[in-house]
Amino acid sequence: MKKVSLAVNYDYHDYGGMLQAFATQQALNKMGIRSEVINFDALKGDVNRRKWKYFLTNASDFSIVKEKSRVIGKKMRARMNKEFGCKLSARDKAFDDFCGKNFQISRKFGSWKDLQDSCREYEAVIVGSDQLWLPSNVAGDYYTLNFVPDGVKKVAYATSFGVGTIPEKMKRQYSAFLRKIDFLSARETSGQEIIKQCTGRDVPLVCDPTLLLETSDWDKIQSREKVPQEEYVFCYFMGDNPEQRDFAKRLARKCNLKIVALLHLDQYIASDEDYVDYAPYNISPADFVGLVKNAKFVCTDSFHGTVFSILFSKDFFTFKRFNKKASLSTNTRLLSLLNRLNLQERLFVGNEGVNNVQEKIDYRVVQPIVSAFRETSFDYLKSALL
User: Is residue 28 over pLDDT 70?
Assistant: First the structure.
């Protein structure tokens, strides 16, 4: 079997991020390709120093400062509030347990030279997928694959820029590393446009790694252990937009459903405590999959909340998380996905009347499009690796 290494954000405690990394490795297994996730724990200090330098030099950008201050505020609250800290610790343990059981991980590399030399043992190094080419990550200079020596194939699978446009002052930096990647692809149409601007290359649009796996694959890991007995609306909100919670409450009242939600994900949102019936914390990525699969409806502002709703043919309502001016806006990935699957009407604001929206989605039309998208995406991987 061929052997490749993966530069993916596999151990970060984010449901969509960990599941897309898991799906990447599983998809390669289905192709008969062995893979190892690169363990770069010893190098994260260098990467994080570069990222913090980027954030500090962009301190005048209010949207960046606002977003990062919320993350820091959540960590401080967890330290000061023992009960809240214990809840987050239970969530962290669920992530760590899933990660430990479900990834093939390389040995720890002690230096950049050690990692560079070891890359020659692989036929290719693959980077992908979720927001790994955000400006801060490019400043961190790991997911750029600049550490990979010449002669080792570099492949980008569905690697997302996370933003609709890149900073003009970083265009030269983006162009330099993108030109060195042998096989480029994009997850969003905005990513295709950025690559075209930086390299002059037309690249294929491929599906998120989670869509490479079929429902039957996800059924093998999904857990019903944390699924309530009563029918429910599953709410998976990352941003702080009260009108979206109000929509979920109105939908639940109309259909006589409970509300199940995962709270305080990227940030602490005090008002979220009041709109839910069930808010579990010790939820692993496998539990997350189960909560989506068994929901009556899904309300989310998350890309992967939307993806898993589509995978399981759920009736979902997706909301924009950011305003148009936010530098860290990731709305483009939602728009690209929904446009590709002809589901543009599933994007909402939150002030819509629940009696005036179409609840049902005709998945007899949608799923064949998903299957075709999956097939062309596997074709790209085959052309790059086989």
Answer: yes
Collapsed DSSP state (helix, strand, coil) of residue 208: coil
Return the higher-pLDDT residue of 66 and 44. 44
Decide: 282 and 90 in contact? Cβ < 8 Å. Answer: yes
**3-state SS assignment for residue 125:** strand
Of 343, 347, 357, 351, nearest to 255 (Cα)? 357
Q: Which residue has the tokens 């347990």?
A: 97
% helix, strand, coil for the chain, step of 5:
50, 15, 35
Longest dimension (CA), the chain: 61
Positions of E strands within 142-301? 153-156, 232-236, 258-261, 297-300
pLDDT for the residue 61: 73
- Per DSSP, the chain holds a count of helices (H) and strands (E) of 15, 10
Q: Which has the closest alpha carbon to 284: 80, 41, 86, 14?
A: 14
pTM to 2 decimal places: 0.94
Structure tokens belonging to residue 361:
């989605």
Average pLDDT over residues 256-281: 95
Distance CA 10, CA 104 (A): 10
- How far CA 61 is from CA of 53, 57, 135, 149, 264, in Å, comes to 14, 9, 13, 35, 24
Structure-model confidence comparison of residues 335 and 309, the more confident one: 309
Is pLDDT above 60 for 325? no
* CA-closest candidate to residue 263, choices 251, 276, 246: 276
Kindly tell me if the per-residue pLDDT of 326 is higher than 50. no
> At what angle are helices 303-311 and 331-340 packed, to 10 degrees?
20
CA-wise closest residue to 337 among 129, 187, 172, 171: 187
pLDDT reading at 6 higher than 80: yes
- Mean pLDDT score across all residues of the chain: 93
Taking the chain, what is the end-to-end CA distance rounded to the nearest angstrom? Answer: 11
Residue 246 contacts residue 317 (beta carbons within 8 Å)? no
- Answer for the pair 244, 228: CB distance below 8 angstroms, yes or no: no
- Cross-strand bridge partners of residue 236: 300
Helix (H, G, I), strand (E, B) or coil at 205: strand
Number of residues that make up the chain: 386
CA distances from 74 to 14, 50, 71, 79, 169 (A): 15, 23, 5, 9, 31
